[in-house]
Every structure is written in C-alpha cells, then in structure tokens.
Amino acid sequence: MTTTHTAIGYRDNLPATDERALVTEQVPTPEPGPHDLLVRVEAVSVNPVDVKLRSGAPAGGLRVLGFDAAGTVVRVGSEVSLFSEGDEVYYAGSIDRPGTDQQRHVVDERVVGRKPASLSFADAASLPLTAITAWEALFDRLGLTAGSSGTLLVVGATGGVGSILLQLAEALLPGVRVIATASDDERAARVRGLGAEHTVNHRDDLTAQVLALAPAGVDWLFTAYSEGQVATYAEVVAPGGHVVAIDDGPRDVSPLKSRSIAWHWELMFTRPVHQTADLVEQHRLLTRVAELVDAGRVRATTEQVFTPIDAANLREAHRRIESSRTTGKIVLHGWR
After folding, report:
1. Burial (CB count within 10 angstroms: exposed 0-12, middle 13-18, buried 19+), residue 208
2. Whole-number pLDDT of residue 205
3. How far apart are CA 259 and CA 155, in angstroms?
4. Strand ranges inside the chain, DSSP E
5. N or C: where does the chain have the smaller number of CB atoms within 10 Å of the terminal CB?
6. 3-state secondary structure of 330
7. How many Å apart are CA 286 and CA 7, to the nearest integer?
8. Same domain, residue pair 171 and 248
C-alpha cells in the first residue's frame, strides 16, 4: 500500500503574492535509496534560491522547493552507515532532487549532519545551506587554514552566508583580519558582533574605504553581489589575491588579469549534483559546524519563525526575501 504525505511546491511561475504561487498536495512517500535517509521534516528555512526557482524555473509538474531542513531520521537505506533511525539531523539537500518543503524527505546521508544538540529544530534549519556555502568558500575555494594570515573583505556581510562566514572566520582563522560591508550603523554593529574587525559602507566609495584600511589591498575577497563590481575588486585586492563569488555569472574578469587575481565560483550543490568523490565532506563540515554551535562559537541567524509549515507562510517568506530587506533567515516550523 502506497503511503502519502503533504508537500508544498509550485506548478506555475507566479508572483509570491498570488495564492497559487505555492500549493499544497499529497504526494507518495518515497523509499530511501542505498545511501539515503528518510527524514520526518520538523523545520525548514527559505533561501534566495527558492525564490529564484519559483519565479522563473519550469516546474514540469509539482516542483517541491526547500534546501534547508532539520528533522528526525525515520528510515535508512541499505548502505547507510553514518546515521540510525531516531537521529536528529540537519542538512541542505541537493538542487537536483525534490526539496524539503514536505513532511517526509529523502536525502543522501553524505550531505547530512547531526543537529546541534543545543539548538531547536527551527534554529538548526536556519544553518545548513549558508554554513556549507561559507565553509566551502573559505576553506575549499580560498584555501584558508588555521595558519593563514592576511586580510579578508566580506561583501554582503549582513546576508545569510556572510553572517555565518564572519563567525567561521572569527572561530577558526585567528590570523585573518576581517573587513565587512554594511549599509548603516545598525548593520555595522551587527557584523562587528559576528566577528568583523572593521566595517565599510558599500554605498559610498568602497575602494577608498578599503584601501584606507589595507593600503596594499586585501588578500581575499568574498562577495555575494559581484555584478558590475569586478573592476572595483581589481583595485582593492592585492596582486596574487583571490576572489570567491556566490552569485550568478557570467562575469568578465579580465580586469583582474594584470594583478594575477584568481576568481573562484562557489556553489554548494556542486558536490551532491556531481556526486563527487569527496561528497562526504559536506557531512563532515556540518558535523564540525554543529560542534562549533554547541561550543558557543557559532550561533544561528534566525530572524523570524513562522508556524506552521504551510503554503501561506511559505508564500509570505518568499515575498519578504524578494523585498531584499531581510538580514537573517526566515524559518518555518511544525505541520498542522
């Protein structure tokens, strides 16, 4: 007998204000594959990628979104070795599989971490996608280590990824000085509280402000907003430095050539989509992040929690993210 569960997704590309933009349906509950976990989803959070897909990507039927979840393992695949039934977990899944906005979700164990013991399901759900992105940007793309020394500029520091990246740098990169962008005094105070030593206002002359703090240029630059900014980065990054971007391309990076500045793209879905040989690194880094959270060295960036998880609350979360005025994560918790 086939069992079903509630899922929320979209069939048409409609504005978030349209009540048909996200709809609720009953879908078959899948069986986990060899490396999969079947998770009872307790909380999800909403990311810009959800908004982008809902507004423009073809659905081809009901497309269930959601790339952050926290929940409990209820069934395991035949080759699962990292988890057991009853384990509390958190993860971001993969863009090429159905999303987490459903009561039961199947996910590869190798991209899953144990939920931080000190966090609620709601706060845990705010972390995975941003934590994975920030970790891979710092350590896999920029190649930073505990022994690194120099200056890092974080553009988009008040966003979801930037907020976690600042905390990881504070906790794990003692020799790295961090400059963060912020558009007003309130946001500047917030990013300093997350670990930035200095702040600059990206609405003013960014080049002059950065070079006043780092006259030879910064060694590394993380950016969530690189469109139209490459020429500026060529001025503020030191020769031989590195830039990592998480927004969409393509970009003309030729202004970086004369200073031999390297450009990196970071996409946290690369490992799961391409089933890379080091896929389990996402499990390991989420485990490390959970340890940092439980040690009080990294905190969740939840801004608001909506209850329950339903289509109306998801539409409102999408609408707020589209406004570009959120500074933390919007989380949905519990089902009717």
Report:
1. exposed
2. 96
3. 20
4. 4-10, 23-28, 36-46, 63-64, 69-76, 88-91, 104-108, 112-114, 150-155, 176-181, 198-200, 218-223, 237-245, 262-265, 302-306, 329-333
5. N
6. strand
7. 26
8. yes
Q: What is the CATH number of the domain that holds 180?
A: 3.40.50.720
Nearest C-alpha neighbor of 33 from the set 81, 80, 95:
80
Q: What global pTM score does this model have?
A: 0.97
Distance CA(11)–CA(148), nearest Å, equals 48
Residues 184 and 103 in one domain: no
Q: Are 11 and 118 in the same domain?
A: yes
Question: What's the pLDDT at 306?
Answer: 97
Same domain, 27 and 137: no
Contact between 220 and 140 under an 8 Å Cβ cutoff? The reply is no
Range of the domain at 190: 131-265
The answer to whether 61 and 43 are in contact (CB under 8 A) is: no
Residue 308's CB is within 10 A of a number of other CB atoms, namely 11
Domain end among 248, 265, 282? 265
- Kindly write down the DSSP assignment for every residue of 166-185, as one continuous string: HHHHHHH-TTEEEEEE-SSH
pLDDT tens-digit map of 89-113: 999 999 999 999 999 999 999 999 9
Name residue 64's amino acid: V
Domain termination residue (choose one: 245, 265, 285)? 265
**Pairwise CA distance, residues 290 & 25, whole Å:** 33
180: which strand partners? 154, 199
Q: How far apart are the two ends of the chain, measured CA to CA in Å?
A: 24
